[in-house]
Every structure is written in structure tokens, then in C-alpha cells.
Amino acid sequence: MLPSTQTLSAFKGTQKPFVAFSPAEKRQPFVAHSTIEVNSAKYFYTCAIGGAMACGLTHYALTPVDMLKCRMQVNKNLYKGIFDGFKKVSSAEGLKGLYLGGAPTIIGYSLQGMGKYGFYEYFKHLYSGFVGDEAAAKYKTLLYLSASASAEFIADVLLCPMEALKVKTQTSTTPFATSFLGGVRKINAAEGLNGFYKGLTPLWLRQIPYTMVKFATFEKTVEAIYKHVLSKPKDQYTKTEQLGVTFAAGYFAGIFCAIVSHPADTLVSKLNNAAKAEGESTGALAMRILKDLGFAGVWAGLGPRIFMIGTLTALQWFIYDSFKVQTGLPTTGGAAAPKKE
């Protein structure tokens, strides 16, 4: 039996219009609600996992850009530019050629990201305890710089062996090895442990300034966006809006990172590709390379690297903060303003 007109009218009056979510739900501010205590061992461990994902995945995704950049640093006349390089490599070797060195890239930078982000949070907490909360708040930028430098010092020890293998694989004129393990064995047989770590000092010179700029610029940019652009405390914005701030601040920081660290990056690429003269020390080899390169040569490949590092840094912060949000932890930087009494 069909319902009467009166019944349909009564039923219709009790219903709300269908929407996927209400405006209030769409604009729901994100407030951290994790069971993980900030600055606990579990917190540092969680940050380390997020850092491994952020650095490993992004560096692997940008392997083609990194490979072309390294080749242009070793031989600046090899390609006319990044797009010419893409065209030549993909035509000759296909997708496999573009991802040459992908295995040491994802392994090395996952280890580096684990150390970089996990120890950054740890050293921020440690150094704040040394100087006290008042001094830490007053000299926040110095705290960011000190913690990030300390973290990167450790992270580069984890990265260096894989960076050596990556650069040799990507810049050799003939295939360096037929497999990842084959490359490891070849370096070990030729140079032993020194073959994996001869680029450590230049790597520190590249990565420590890079990371100091990356973390300090990011944290200060996040603070500036919430204070001067959005003008409300962070916890009054949605999860999507907070992660948008993360991405924007990350890209801005990445541009500065690329410029600051590029000369040392060029040296790392050349150092891992060059052969030592008999009795020549690593330091002497580095000085010889810098003399041969000259000022212009040191800056070769800067354009591709700005694009690479800007994108890379933005994506790393986005992945890292997205992982933290999924565990209920707050996004990085831009703490909510204290409530007035």
C-alpha cells in the first residue's frame, strides 16, 4: 500500500538535506590527540620513522633529476640542460636509465632521514633542557640551528656509503656494476672502507649547512605564515590547511638550501667520480678538483638542483608532517599562541 500524501509530508519535514559533510565538519580544526607523549622515546622513534619515509621516498622519486644533476656536475658539456638530459637518457636507456642508482638512493636517504628528523627532535629537547625553557624560547633560531647541525652530523655517517655508490653508479661512463651488491663489492675490493667514506667530509660540508637552513628556515617560515599571513593560532586551522602551510614553508626553505649547499654538492659528485694520484690524500684531491673547476664550475647544475631541492624539501616536510598527523601528533612549528588569562 502506498503512503498517503500527509505521511510523505510529515516524513519530509523530519529530514535534513543530504550533504557529504556539514560546513562545521569541513572546517573542523585539527588539534593533536596522540597517546604518544611529546619528547618521549616513542616520540623520537615515531619522528625517525616519518623522516625515513620522507627522505627515502622523495629522493627515490627524484632520482632522474639527481642523476642528471650529478652527470652535469662531472661533465658540464654532457647535456644542454635538464630537459635535454631527460630526452637523451630516456631515448637511449628508457626508464631504467633515468632511475640509475635508485637502490642506493632509497636505502641511503631512508637511513639519513631517520637520523636527520629523529635526532633533530631529540637534540631540540636535549639542548632546551641544557639552557632552560626561557632561554630556549628566546633563542629559538639558535636552538634550531644547533639541533639540526648535530642531527645531520650523525645522519651523514649513515648516508655516506650509499651516496658513494650512488654517485659512482650514476656518473661512470661505462656501467659501474650490474647490481647493487656488485657495486658494493667493487668499491670494497678497490678501496676498502675508505671508498665508502672518502666523501664524508665534503658530505658534511654540503649537508650540515643545508640541513641548518632547511630546519631553521622552515620553522621560522611556518611561524611567519601563521603570524603575518593567516593571523590565527595553528590549532584553529584544519588538517589540510596546516599541511598546506607545511608544504609552502618547505618549498621556500628548499630554495635557500639548494643555493647554500651547492658548491659542496658539486665537490661530492666530482670527488666520488675522480681517481686519486699515487700518494694523494683526499684533501689534496679535493683542492685539485676545486682548482680545476673554478668559480663557474662549482655552480654547474644549480638550476636543476634548485628545482630538485625545492620540490624535495617541500615534499619531505609534507610527508613527515602527514605521518605525524596520522599518529595524532601536531604538525611541525607554528605552535598555537598561549591563551590569555
From TrEMBL:
Superkingdom of origin: Eukaryota
Membrane topology: Multi-pass membrane protein
GO cellular component annotations of the record: mitochondrial inner membrane
Ranges that cross the membrane: none
One BP annotation, GO: copper ion transmembrane transport
Keyword field: Membrane, Mitochondrion, Mitochondrion inner membrane, Repeat, Transmembrane, Transmembrane helix, Transport
Compartments, record wording: Mitochondrion inner membrane
Claim: Transport is one of the keywords in the record: yes
Ranges: Solcar repeats: 42-126, 139-224, 241-326
Function: Transport of phosphate groups from the cytosol to the mitochondrial matrix.
Record family assignment: Belongs to the mitochondrial carrier (TC 2.A.29) family.
The protein's name: Cu/Pi carrier
Organism: Coemansia spiralis
Record lineage: Eukaryota, Fungi, Fungi incertae sedis, Zoopagomycota, Kickxellomycotina
